[in-house]
Design goal:
single chain, alpha/beta, 46% helix, 329 residues, 3-stranded antiparallel beta sheet, 15% strand
Protein backbone atom coordinates (compact mmCIF):
# COMPACT_ATOMS: atom_id res chain seq x y z
CA UNK A 1 0.00 0.00 0.00
CA UNK A 2 2.77 2.38 0.99
CA UNK A 3 4.69 1.50 -2.16
CA UNK A 4 1.65 2.35 -4.30
CA UNK A 5 1.22 5.70 -2.59
CA UNK A 6 4.89 6.55 -3.14
CA UNK A 7 4.64 5.50 -6.78
CA UNK A 8 1.51 7.62 -7.30
CA UNK A 9 3.12 10.64 -5.65
CA UNK A 10 6.21 10.26 -7.81
CA UNK A 11 4.24 9.86 -11.04
CA UNK A 12 2.02 12.92 -10.50
CA UNK A 13 4.73 15.51 -11.30
CA UNK A 14 5.68 13.55 -14.40
CA UNK A 15 2.05 13.44 -15.55
CA UNK A 16 1.66 17.17 -14.99
CA UNK A 17 4.86 17.86 -16.90
CA UNK A 18 3.68 15.75 -19.84
CA UNK A 19 0.30 17.49 -19.75
CA UNK A 20 2.00 20.90 -19.75
CA UNK A 21 4.18 19.96 -22.72
CA UNK A 22 1.16 18.61 -24.60
CA UNK A 23 -0.88 21.74 -23.93
CA UNK A 24 1.94 23.94 -25.20
CA UNK A 25 2.59 21.78 -28.27
CA UNK A 26 -1.11 21.67 -29.22
CA UNK A 27 -1.45 25.45 -29.14
CA UNK A 28 -4.99 25.13 -27.75
CA UNK A 29 -4.32 26.96 -24.49
CA UNK A 30 -5.67 30.52 -24.73
CA UNK A 31 -3.17 33.28 -24.13
CA UNK A 32 -3.42 35.86 -21.36
CA UNK A 33 -4.68 39.29 -22.34
CA UNK A 34 -5.01 42.64 -20.59
CA UNK A 35 -8.48 44.18 -20.72
CA UNK A 36 -8.58 47.82 -19.66
CA UNK A 37 -10.78 50.88 -20.00
CA UNK A 38 -8.77 53.93 -19.09
CA UNK A 39 -7.52 53.40 -15.54
CA UNK A 40 -9.69 50.34 -14.95
CA UNK A 41 -9.47 46.59 -15.50
CA UNK A 42 -11.59 43.60 -14.60
CA UNK A 43 -11.10 42.28 -11.07
CA UNK A 44 -10.67 38.61 -10.19
CA UNK A 45 -13.02 39.29 -7.26
CA UNK A 46 -16.60 39.25 -8.62
CA UNK A 47 -17.82 41.26 -5.63
CA UNK A 48 -15.55 44.10 -6.80
CA UNK A 49 -16.17 43.71 -10.53
CA UNK A 50 -13.48 46.09 -11.75
CA UNK A 51 -10.51 47.79 -10.16
CA UNK A 52 -7.97 50.52 -10.92
CA UNK A 53 -4.73 49.58 -12.67
CA UNK A 54 -1.61 49.99 -10.48
CA UNK A 55 0.91 52.67 -11.45
CA UNK A 56 -1.27 53.91 -14.31
CA UNK A 57 -0.20 57.33 -15.54
CA UNK A 58 -2.29 59.71 -17.62
CA UNK A 59 -1.59 63.21 -18.89
CA UNK A 60 -3.93 64.69 -21.43
CA UNK A 61 -7.36 66.10 -22.20
CA UNK A 62 -9.17 62.76 -22.38
CA UNK A 63 -11.29 62.28 -19.24
CA UNK A 64 -13.58 59.28 -19.78
CA UNK A 65 -12.37 56.44 -17.54
CA UNK A 66 -9.08 58.27 -16.87
CA UNK A 67 -10.53 60.29 -13.96
CA UNK A 68 -7.49 62.38 -13.01
CA UNK A 69 -4.10 63.56 -14.20
CA UNK A 70 -0.91 61.90 -13.04
CA UNK A 71 0.10 58.53 -11.68
CA UNK A 72 -1.78 56.16 -9.40
CA UNK A 73 -0.06 54.21 -6.63
CA UNK A 74 0.88 50.53 -6.36
CA UNK A 75 -2.79 49.58 -5.84
CA UNK A 76 -4.15 51.91 -8.51
CA UNK A 77 -5.54 54.52 -6.11
CA UNK A 78 -5.05 58.27 -6.27
CA UNK A 79 -2.52 58.36 -3.48
CA UNK A 80 1.14 57.78 -2.67
CA UNK A 81 2.41 54.29 -1.88
CA UNK A 82 1.97 53.29 1.75
CA UNK A 83 4.09 50.77 3.64
CA UNK A 84 2.24 47.75 5.00
CA UNK A 85 3.79 48.40 8.41
CA UNK A 86 2.44 51.60 9.90
CA UNK A 87 4.61 54.04 11.81
CA UNK A 88 4.74 53.67 15.60
CA UNK A 89 2.21 55.82 17.49
CA UNK A 90 0.59 56.93 14.23
CA UNK A 91 -3.14 56.61 13.59
CA UNK A 92 -3.88 55.05 10.22
CA UNK A 93 -7.12 56.23 8.60
CA UNK A 94 -8.39 54.38 5.51
CA UNK A 95 -11.01 56.16 3.39
CA UNK A 96 -13.41 54.20 1.18
CA UNK A 97 -15.51 55.85 -1.49
CA UNK A 98 -16.33 56.42 -5.14
CA UNK A 99 -15.40 59.14 -7.66
CA UNK A 100 -16.05 61.73 -4.99
CA UNK A 101 -13.23 60.24 -2.90
CA UNK A 102 -11.01 59.67 -5.93
CA UNK A 103 -11.39 63.39 -6.57
CA UNK A 104 -13.12 63.56 -9.94
CA UNK A 105 -12.76 67.08 -11.48
CA UNK A 106 -10.09 67.99 -8.90
CA UNK A 107 -6.87 68.85 -10.71
CA UNK A 108 -4.40 68.50 -7.83
CA UNK A 109 -4.28 65.46 -5.55
CA UNK A 110 -3.37 67.64 -2.59
CA UNK A 111 -6.79 69.36 -2.94
CA UNK A 112 -8.77 66.11 -2.52
CA UNK A 113 -10.43 65.94 0.92
CA UNK A 114 -8.32 62.94 2.00
CA UNK A 115 -5.16 65.02 1.55
CA UNK A 116 -6.80 67.95 3.34
CA UNK A 117 -7.75 65.62 6.19
CA UNK A 118 -4.19 64.37 6.68
CA UNK A 119 -2.75 67.89 6.42
CA UNK A 120 -5.28 69.34 8.89
CA UNK A 121 -4.60 66.60 11.44
CA UNK A 122 -0.86 67.27 11.16
CA UNK A 123 -1.45 70.99 11.68
CA UNK A 124 -3.41 70.13 14.84
CA UNK A 125 -0.51 68.05 16.15
CA UNK A 126 -2.04 64.66 15.33
CA UNK A 127 0.21 61.97 13.90
CA UNK A 128 -2.04 60.37 11.33
CA UNK A 129 -1.65 58.67 7.96
CA UNK A 130 -4.59 58.81 5.54
CA UNK A 131 -5.02 56.20 2.79
CA UNK A 132 -7.31 57.03 -0.13
CA UNK A 133 -9.07 53.90 -1.45
CA UNK A 134 -11.62 55.77 -3.56
CA UNK A 135 -12.59 54.29 -6.96
CA UNK A 136 -14.91 55.95 -9.46
CA UNK A 137 -18.26 54.24 -9.82
CA UNK A 138 -18.02 52.02 -6.76
CA UNK A 139 -21.05 51.38 -4.60
CA UNK A 140 -21.01 50.35 -0.94
CA UNK A 141 -20.68 46.64 -1.73
CA UNK A 142 -17.57 47.18 -3.86
CA UNK A 143 -16.05 49.54 -1.30
CA UNK A 144 -16.41 47.08 1.57
CA UNK A 145 -15.13 44.21 -0.61
CA UNK A 146 -12.10 46.35 -1.52
CA UNK A 147 -11.43 47.01 2.15
CA UNK A 148 -11.48 43.28 2.91
CA UNK A 149 -9.36 42.26 -0.08
CA UNK A 150 -6.82 45.08 -0.14
CA UNK A 151 -7.22 47.37 2.84
CA UNK A 152 -7.12 45.13 5.90
CA UNK A 153 -3.46 44.25 5.40
CA UNK A 154 -2.68 47.94 6.12
CA UNK A 155 -4.20 47.48 9.60
CA UNK A 156 -6.31 50.68 9.74
CA UNK A 157 -7.25 52.16 13.10
CA UNK A 158 -10.18 54.07 11.59
CA UNK A 159 -12.15 53.34 8.42
CA UNK A 160 -14.05 56.28 6.93
CA UNK A 161 -16.79 55.40 4.46
CA UNK A 162 -17.40 58.47 2.28
CA UNK A 163 -21.06 57.90 1.50
CA UNK A 164 -22.88 59.49 -1.42
CA UNK A 165 -26.66 59.38 -1.54
CA UNK A 166 -26.51 57.71 -4.96
CA UNK A 167 -24.63 54.69 -3.54
CA UNK A 168 -27.88 52.71 -3.61
CA UNK A 169 -27.63 52.76 -7.44
CA UNK A 170 -25.20 51.49 -10.06
CA UNK A 171 -23.39 54.66 -11.14
CA UNK A 172 -20.18 53.49 -12.80
CA UNK A 173 -20.64 55.26 -16.12
CA UNK A 174 -20.69 52.02 -18.10
CA UNK A 175 -17.21 50.86 -17.02
CA UNK A 176 -18.29 47.24 -16.53
CA UNK A 177 -20.10 47.15 -19.88
CA UNK A 178 -17.07 48.57 -21.65
CA UNK A 179 -14.75 46.01 -20.05
CA UNK A 180 -17.05 43.09 -20.91
CA UNK A 181 -17.23 44.20 -24.55
CA UNK A 182 -13.44 44.51 -24.68
CA UNK A 183 -13.06 41.02 -23.18
CA UNK A 184 -15.44 39.49 -25.72
CA UNK A 185 -13.70 41.18 -28.67
CA UNK A 186 -10.15 40.42 -27.55
CA UNK A 187 -10.63 36.78 -26.57
CA UNK A 188 -8.18 34.87 -24.41
CA UNK A 189 -8.18 34.92 -20.61
CA UNK A 190 -8.13 38.25 -18.84
CA UNK A 191 -4.86 38.54 -16.91
CA UNK A 192 -6.47 39.48 -13.61
CA UNK A 193 -8.59 36.29 -13.59
CA UNK A 194 -5.71 33.96 -12.70
CA UNK A 195 -2.92 34.09 -10.13
CA UNK A 196 0.38 35.01 -11.87
CA UNK A 197 2.04 31.69 -11.04
CA UNK A 198 -0.84 29.72 -12.59
CA UNK A 199 -1.17 32.01 -15.59
CA UNK A 200 2.23 30.81 -16.84
CA UNK A 201 0.93 27.25 -17.20
CA UNK A 202 -0.56 26.41 -20.58
CA UNK A 203 -2.13 23.31 -19.04
CA UNK A 204 -3.98 25.32 -16.41
CA UNK A 205 -5.11 27.93 -18.96
CA UNK A 206 -6.51 25.11 -21.09
CA UNK A 207 -8.32 23.50 -18.14
CA UNK A 208 -9.63 26.91 -17.02
CA UNK A 209 -10.99 27.81 -20.46
CA UNK A 210 -12.65 24.41 -20.99
CA UNK A 211 -14.15 23.64 -17.59
CA UNK A 212 -13.64 26.37 -14.98
CA UNK A 213 -14.34 29.64 -16.81
CA UNK A 214 -18.08 28.94 -17.27
CA UNK A 215 -18.75 28.64 -13.54
CA UNK A 216 -16.50 31.62 -12.79
CA UNK A 217 -18.31 33.74 -15.36
CA UNK A 218 -21.71 32.70 -13.97
CA UNK A 219 -20.63 33.78 -10.49
CA UNK A 220 -19.38 37.09 -11.88
CA UNK A 221 -22.66 37.60 -13.78
CA UNK A 222 -24.75 36.91 -10.67
CA UNK A 223 -22.75 39.39 -8.62
CA UNK A 224 -22.84 41.97 -11.42
CA UNK A 225 -26.63 41.81 -11.22
CA UNK A 226 -26.39 42.41 -7.48
CA UNK A 227 -24.31 45.52 -8.15
CA UNK A 228 -27.41 46.96 -9.81
CA UNK A 229 -29.36 46.42 -6.60
CA UNK A 230 -29.36 48.35 -3.34
CA UNK A 231 -26.61 46.57 -1.39
CA UNK A 232 -26.06 49.23 1.28
CA UNK A 233 -27.69 47.46 4.23
CA UNK A 234 -25.93 44.06 3.91
CA UNK A 235 -22.66 45.81 3.05
CA UNK A 236 -22.78 47.92 6.21
CA UNK A 237 -23.56 44.80 8.21
CA UNK A 238 -20.46 43.13 6.74
CA UNK A 239 -18.45 46.25 7.53
CA UNK A 240 -19.65 46.12 11.15
CA UNK A 241 -18.64 42.46 11.45
CA UNK A 242 -15.24 43.16 9.90
CA UNK A 243 -14.66 46.10 12.24
CA UNK A 244 -15.49 43.94 15.26
CA UNK A 245 -13.13 41.23 14.08
CA UNK A 246 -10.23 43.52 13.17
CA UNK A 247 -10.66 46.16 15.86
CA UNK A 248 -11.00 49.38 13.86
CA UNK A 249 -13.47 52.22 14.37
CA UNK A 250 -15.90 53.12 11.60
CA UNK A 251 -17.10 56.57 10.56
CA UNK A 252 -19.62 57.21 7.79
CA UNK A 253 -19.22 60.69 6.29
CA UNK A 254 -22.36 61.53 4.30
CA UNK A 255 -21.57 63.95 1.47
CA UNK A 256 -24.43 66.15 0.30
CA UNK A 257 -25.43 66.35 -3.35
CA UNK A 258 -26.42 69.59 -5.00
CA UNK A 259 -29.59 71.00 -3.48
CA UNK A 260 -31.88 69.87 -6.29
CA UNK A 261 -30.75 66.24 -5.84
CA UNK A 262 -31.12 65.95 -2.09
CA UNK A 263 -33.28 63.18 -0.71
CA UNK A 264 -34.43 63.41 2.92
CA UNK A 265 -35.57 59.77 2.76
CA UNK A 266 -32.13 58.49 1.69
CA UNK A 267 -30.39 60.67 4.25
CA UNK A 268 -32.68 59.42 7.00
CA UNK A 269 -32.10 55.82 5.94
CA UNK A 270 -28.29 55.99 6.01
CA UNK A 271 -28.45 57.78 9.37
CA UNK A 272 -30.63 54.99 10.79
CA UNK A 273 -28.36 52.30 9.34
CA UNK A 274 -25.34 53.95 10.96
CA UNK A 275 -27.11 54.00 14.30
CA UNK A 276 -28.19 50.35 14.07
CA UNK A 277 -24.64 49.27 13.20
CA UNK A 278 -23.00 51.42 15.86
CA UNK A 279 -21.14 53.63 13.36
CA UNK A 280 -20.26 57.25 13.99
CA UNK A 281 -22.02 59.36 11.36
CA UNK A 282 -21.04 62.80 10.10
CA UNK A 283 -23.64 64.57 7.97
CA UNK A 284 -21.71 67.12 5.91
CA UNK A 285 -24.80 68.86 4.54
CA UNK A 286 -24.98 71.46 7.37
CA UNK A 287 -21.24 72.09 6.91
CA UNK A 288 -21.65 72.76 3.19
CA UNK A 289 -24.77 74.88 3.67
CA UNK A 290 -23.15 76.96 6.42
CA UNK A 291 -19.90 77.54 4.54
CA UNK A 292 -21.70 78.41 1.32
CA UNK A 293 -23.84 80.95 3.17
CA UNK A 294 -20.81 82.57 4.81
CA UNK A 295 -18.30 82.53 1.96
CA UNK A 296 -20.62 82.63 -1.02
CA UNK A 297 -18.43 80.03 -2.71
CA UNK A 298 -19.77 77.31 -4.96
CA UNK A 299 -18.94 74.10 -3.09
CA UNK A 300 -20.25 71.71 -5.75
CA UNK A 301 -18.74 71.06 -9.17
CA UNK A 302 -21.85 69.24 -10.37
CA UNK A 303 -24.77 67.35 -8.85
CA UNK A 304 -22.65 64.95 -6.80
CA UNK A 305 -19.00 66.05 -6.77
CA UNK A 306 -17.62 68.83 -4.55
CA UNK A 307 -15.47 71.62 -5.93
CA UNK A 308 -11.99 72.33 -4.60
CA UNK A 309 -13.58 74.51 -1.90
CA UNK A 310 -16.02 71.70 -1.06
CA UNK A 311 -13.17 69.23 -0.63
CA UNK A 312 -11.36 71.74 1.59
CA UNK A 313 -14.28 72.21 3.97
CA UNK A 314 -15.10 68.49 3.96
CA UNK A 315 -11.53 67.54 4.86
CA UNK A 316 -11.38 70.10 7.66
CA UNK A 317 -14.80 69.13 9.05
CA UNK A 318 -13.86 65.46 9.03
CA UNK A 319 -10.60 66.21 10.86
CA UNK A 320 -12.46 68.17 13.54
CA UNK A 321 -15.02 65.39 13.88
CA UNK A 322 -12.38 62.69 14.32
CA UNK A 323 -10.52 64.75 16.91
CA UNK A 324 -13.68 65.82 18.71
CA UNK A 325 -14.79 62.21 19.08
CA UNK A 326 -11.29 61.09 20.09
CA UNK A 327 -10.98 58.76 17.13
CA UNK A 328 -7.52 60.19 16.44
CA UNK A 329 -5.35 60.19 19.59
Amino acid sequence: MLKRMILAAASLPAALLLGELAARWSGRAPEMTLITAGRFRLSSNPAIGYEPVPYFEHHGDKEEYFEFQGRSNNLGFRDRDHARQKEPYACRILVLGDSLTMGLYIERTEDVFTSVLERTLAERGRRAEVLNFGVSGYNTRQEVATLIEKGLEYEPDVVVLAYCLNDVEEMNGGIMTRLRVEKKERGGIERSMLPPWLARSALYRLVYSRWLSASAEKERKDLRMKLKQDTVEPSLRLLRETAAERGFKTVVAVFPPREDRRSPERLRRITELCASNGFACLDLQPVFDGQAAVSGENLMHDGWHPSVAGHLFAGRALAEYLMGNRLVP
